[in-house]
Amino acid sequence: MKLFDSHAHYNDEKFDLDREELLEKLYQGEVKRIINAGYDVISSRLAVKMAEIYPEMYAICGISPNNLPEMKYAIQIDSETQLKKKINEIREIAQNKKVVGIGEIGLDYHWNKENKKMQQLAFKEQIQLANELKLPIVIHARDAYPDVIEILKENPVDKKGVFHCCQLNQELVREALELGFYISFAGSITFKNTNHAEPVIEMVPKDRLLIETDSPYLSPEPNRGQRNDSSNLIYIARKIAKVKGMTEEEVAEQTFKNANKIFGIRTRRTKKDEKLEEKTSKDA
């Protein structure tokens, strides 16, 4: 079985003590590819540096809505000029060949309600950047889906992208699918107090489905509350398999293929693949 973790944060400080050992162990197991996600300038630089070290790790870079200029006592701390300067830094980082998307970007009205205009501006500017660089986007959308969808309709994304750790909202998923986006599920679909996972999973076509851990956060059951890592992908695949009447291997294979497609990652052809293609050609 080959698993593709389409969104993780191995650039997070929670991995500082055992990052190398953990990644080596993961790659020796069933996890074969990982997207390492940035969320501000520093984490994006680190995501790229790590992707340069590990052949089967790729990076996305961007400024998330939770890492934008803040508001304090209704006073804006940073300016739009500073925001655009940071986006220019993301533009430079994204020139690296291991960068396969702009993200995570989007809107979050759960944690941040006072800087909605700044969030929206950052989202639009980074959509424009993605189009400029011909890259897909990876969207963080929490308690803000009407505005996210409206911005996407008004600012079309050429290469589309992914709703990462997608909220279990049927209307959001319907709109996202209609716009051509992929849906990525994380550990939250396994939580015992989650009531809406099954109908949302059923809505997503197999060819638009991704799985992720969002490590080190959101560990799935039965490891909820612990530091998350990509080895827990199997529990997410298992949940999806149960809902969709698939095997875990089929979910792994389909989501591996889907992640390669949306992020434009070519799978290396082995000698076995070449021999199979040669045989198929002769038989035709």
Task: State the main characteristics.
284 residues, eight-stranded parallel beta sheet, disordered C terminus, globular, two-stranded antiparallel sheet, single chain, alpha/beta, 10 helices, TIM Barrel
Gist of the model:
The chain has an 8-stranded parallel β-sheet. Helix 5 (145-154) links the parallel strand 7 (137-142) and strand 8 (161-163).
Overview of the structural elements:
By secondary structure, the chain is α/β, with parallel strands linked by helices. It has one domain (3-283): TIM Barrel, CATH 3.20.20. Helices cover 43% and strands 17% of the residues. It is built from ten helices and ten strands. It has helices at residues 19-28, 41-53, 80-93, 116-133, 145-154, 170-178, 197-203, 233-244, 248-262, 271-283, and strands spanning 3-8, 31-37, 57-61, 71-72, 75-76, 99-108, 137-142, 161-163, 182-185, 209-211. An eight-stranded parallel β-sheet has the order 1-2-3-6-7-8-9-10. Strands 4-5 form a two-stranded antiparallel sheet. It is globular. The chain starts with a strand and ends with a helix. Mean pLDDT is 92; it is low at 269-277 and 279-284.
Let me know the CATH homologous superfamily. Metal-dependent hydrolases
Helix content: 40-55%
CATH topology: TIM Barrel
Which structural class fits the helix and strand makeup? alpha/beta
Radius of gyration over C-alpha positions, nearest whole angstrom: 19 Å
Shape: globular
- If strands are numbered along the chain, what order do they take across the biggest sheet? 1-2-3-6-7-8-9-10
> Architecture, according to CATH?
Alpha-Beta Barrel
> Average pLDDT, to the nearest integer?
92
Distance between the ends: 30 Å
